[in-house]
Write a structure and sequence with these properties.
With 376 residues, the chain is α/β, with parallel strands linked by helices. Helices cover 24% and strands 28% of the residues.
Length: 376
Amino acid sequence: LSQTARGELHDPDQPLEQAFFASQESLVLPSAFFKAATTLTLEPIYVRLAGTHNDKTVYVALPVSDVSVADRPQAQFAPFVYTASPRAHGQIHEQPRTLADLQDYLEEVPFIDKLRQHLLELKADSSFDGGLKLLVIVRLPRQREAGGDVETIEVWTFASVNNLVDIGTDLGIWEIHENEIALLWGIDVSRLGQTSSLIMLNPIQALTREMAAAFNGLNPSETRYIAIGAGILGSQVVNNLIRAGQGNWVWVDEDQYLPHNAARHYLPSCYIGQDKAMAMKALLGNIWEKMELQAIAANVLLPASSSLLTAFSEAEVILDMSASVVVARHLSSGVESSARRISLFLNPSGTDVVLLAEGSDRALRLDHLEMEYYRG
């Protein structure tokens, strides 16, 4: 009680208190929204339902440009990002239920003013869609003590129940006259969004390469790889490397995924009949943000397509997991590329994994290393 009376109940090594009580619903947001200083693209956002379990619902937000036209829903959200002034953490507040409630919590006139300005800018654009809902993304720089250093950027998201047209009316910037939006000569400052209902969503940062690497105890890598072979070994190895934030990948394999492959392959049986490389790209292509994963259905022993030639010329490492001596030897000396070659395979009895790796200068080539392996 004495600590509470002195305002010392929160120990210096404790995490900061969050601004609001958590919601049962969460929204996965692009990582850019969580960065301390960033320029955010305010294009419409596609929000899809990811799933519900034990009354807890998770939504995922993506910029509309990242979603195919066929997958876009009719309802989209126009985002509004507001970064508040730094403030010290303190008591946890009740969730804001309206825009006016959120304004009361922020205690900052610029919030509503900037939201009004944002809506007017959207209205001035020829592509304005008043039927969109509003997604308010509030970034709260948090301090341990007033005037202290900002320790974290707390992000909260609020989805509007009303559409943009109704919100603009509730903020006093326009009225509807004969089914048309009529701008008011002067803003009605008494309208602060009192009837614009909000649903609070707990924000979750989308996975990035850096986060994936950190979760695996590694540093992230952007090394440009070509993986030859998307079979039993290749599917497992590249899957684990991608999930650990390692590399930008081009996957080359012409084989088709068949039922017997499912015994040891990473792919589930629902991909039977598809090209292995293409299927692995479909499965792993969105593990983390802005992933560079390409797939080429090709036989490297045949004349190369322009896309394969480009991939070889840009690669830093050619990783052979084809389990073919012929392919490994062809990659060693029959491919024009400055990339170092690495070959990974199982021994004939399947008891050992063998890795043959050239140095970056390629002083000892893969075919030389093969002979050393046989000699050993």
